[in-house]
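chain below, 295 aa
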Amino acid sequence: PPSSSRSTRRATPAPPSPASRSATAVARPIPLDAPVTSTRMPSSSAMAIAAITHGMTDASASGPLPPDTVGVLEGIATTRAIRRYTDDPVPPDALRAILFAATRAPSGSNRQPFRFVVLTDGPKAREAKRLIGESARAFWGAKRVDDGYDRGSGAAADAPKARQAAAMQDYVDHFESVPVVILPCLVRYREPFPSEGASVYPACQHLLLAARALGYGGVLTIWHLAAEAALHELLDIPDDVWIAATITLGKPRGGHGPVRRRPMAELGYGETWGDAPPWASDPPGTRHTSAGPPR
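prediction:
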């Protein structure tokens, strides 16, 4: 929970109620292929991106969105969790397009309570990355032991389990050098409840799919948990705002490709639990994997 030393900080105004919205004109969504000629978004759109960045110019903050490189279905099937990045920065025009896509996500009653803190290379951004990096290394160290990544097949360096552990260790060891860290947040408008993430996590997936479409990659984590109070203080995040995740973004050191999951027939059912409908079959060439963590 946030530090009590911030108890006097002003709270973020709650998203407007349906009644209050009815008294004002609600802006129509801007199609993804339409030009955006102003940096000022309608208040009802809940753009509200807190960006701690450098190099954002007027030219990069207006004009049409860049063309993407994949279709929706292909993007869904090939958006991998990317944890290794080149040192290349993510330019402002790409960040703008990625965050625009995120802010088009659905939310309960269209309240649009999601907000995004975008951290690139400013002094607060560097300190936030350090805090999250320390948290990530502590969490991964415990998980590596608890889930037995170094036991069983993990003892062989070329085993999938060992390779996954090595990739994760590399990720947390170099967290501070990640080009972009985004903190998706939720402005709470009632007491916390189990399904409140439904109004912020769809925006996270929009964000990752947009990054994939523009040649970037990322992964959603909760590495920030041990540093949450410090992040609230450092970034002046109000007390009534929940940091829902940590997303890292950058140019992949490697690439995207078909994701592997369990067969659809094991995950989708008809009228009886466990019984898949006859159409629940994967496309030709689909590769599968068991549920994690690896054994």
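Helices lie at 18-21, 72-78, 92-102, 123-146, 160-173, 201-213, 228-235, 264-267. Residues 1-8, 15-48, 52-59 have pLDDT under 50 and may be disordered.
thats it, cya
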